User: Which sequence fits this backbone?
């Protein structure tokens, strides 16, 4: 049995767009996707889908009467799963598993149903079945008419990379040959933003770059929420469709003193990176797409963990959250997409306000990090 894990397709939707060429073009500029607008009862900085993506989601919602009652997180996943499966060349006759998770799930729809209940004492018939976490993979499976296991889960901000880990485990067990994995998040509600503000991590910046992810000298937290989804198709062995291979995986959980805290040197990241790199020379890692959510402690602790592993000779460091915000459960797979695009185009995309870094050699191996509340870290090493 082949042991190589190939990524044969990837698709996403976010403030960057929903087409890989458009997404790459947007990565090449120094513009971000943030707007300041009213969100329910609040005014806040957010990174919504771009106009073309919003149009596609509305068309999808109208295309089937059953889809009219679904949360945006489910619709995002359906839209990009269609694209990923088509790119991979998978057919309806193929058997493949689906593991698409979300940190919050159908939060917008849940909040709407709860408000209706508070105001009227009545709950709509579909309130329960349309707000369960299992909605995402189940509806994607329905839409694709797939055969195989359907799994949805939440491990907060590392959800998408845990989906990748789980898919790999299924492939290596021999219980599946193909898996569609990723994450979807539609968290742009006033209640969710209020929760982030209660944690005192939401951006108050009105600067050119409101989210200062990877600015290690910032004096205030600068997280900004974004919405989006990303999925990839994974298979055993190399195929003509292979766009990247998973060369290493690592995961770890650390004992924390507080529900949302992270240790000063991110012990969980040290463990996950060490595990992912156990068969790789440190000097062979060309770049790291960091989790770096734009918080003071979150960014700095991950950087210190990288220093602990790599010493003085650090790989190129980057993140996409300064541009598209934090998409919670989808963020890890959006980082995977960024890494794959950099490998395909042999171009490193840095952070415009961070310390300047220059690419001095071809990009062959890129490490991707994600971590969620509770210290659930995942590291994935990608290669060509």
Assistant:
């Amino acid at each position: 049995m082949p042991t190589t894990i190939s990524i044969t397709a990837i698709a996403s939707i976010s403030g960057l767009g929903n087409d890989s060429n458009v997404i790459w073009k947007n990565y090449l500029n120094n513009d971000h996707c943030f707007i300041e607008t009213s969100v329910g009862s609040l005014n806040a900085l957010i990174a919504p889908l771009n106009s073309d993506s919003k149009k596609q989601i509305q068309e999808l919602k109208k295309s089937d009467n059953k889809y009219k009652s679904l949360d945006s997180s489910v619709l995002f996943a359906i839209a990009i799963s269609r694209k990923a499966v088509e790119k991979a060349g998978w057919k309806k006759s193929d058997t493949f598993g689906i593991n698409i998770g979300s940190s919050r799930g159908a939060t917008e729809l849940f909040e709407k149903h709860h408000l209706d209940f508070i105001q009227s004492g009545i709950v709509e018939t579909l309130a329960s079945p349309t707000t369960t976490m299992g909605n995402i993979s189940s509806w994607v499976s329905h839409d694709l008419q797939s055969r195989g296991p359907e799994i949805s889960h939440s491990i907060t901000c590392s959800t998408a990379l845990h989906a990748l880990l789980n898919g790999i485990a299924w492939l290596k067990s021999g219980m599946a040959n193909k898996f569609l994995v990723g994450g979807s998040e539609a968290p742009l509600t006033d209640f969710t933003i209020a929760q982030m503000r209660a944690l005192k991590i939401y951006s108050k910046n009105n600067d050119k770059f409101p989210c200062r992810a990877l600015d290690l000298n910032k004096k205030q937290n600068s997280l900004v929420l974004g919405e989006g989804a990303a999925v990839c198709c994974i298979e055993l062995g190399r195929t003509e469709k292979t766009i990247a291979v998973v060369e290493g995986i690592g995961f770890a959980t650390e004992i924390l003193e507080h529900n949302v805290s992270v240790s000063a040197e991110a012990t969980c990241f040290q463990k996950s990176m060490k595990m992912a790199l156990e068969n790789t020379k440190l000097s062979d890692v060309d770049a790291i797409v960091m989790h770096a959510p734009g918080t003071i402690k979150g960014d700095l602790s991950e950087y210190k963990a990288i220093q602990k592993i790599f010493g003085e000779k650090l790989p190129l460091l980057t993140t996409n959250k300064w541009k598209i915000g934090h998409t919670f459960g989808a963020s890890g797979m959006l980082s995977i997409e960024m890494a794959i695009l950099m490998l395909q185009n042999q171009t490193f995309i840095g952070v415009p306000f961070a310390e300047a870094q220059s690419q001095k050699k071809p990009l062959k191996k890129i490490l991707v990090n994600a971590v969620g509340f509770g210290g659930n870290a995942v590291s994935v090493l990608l290669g060509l």
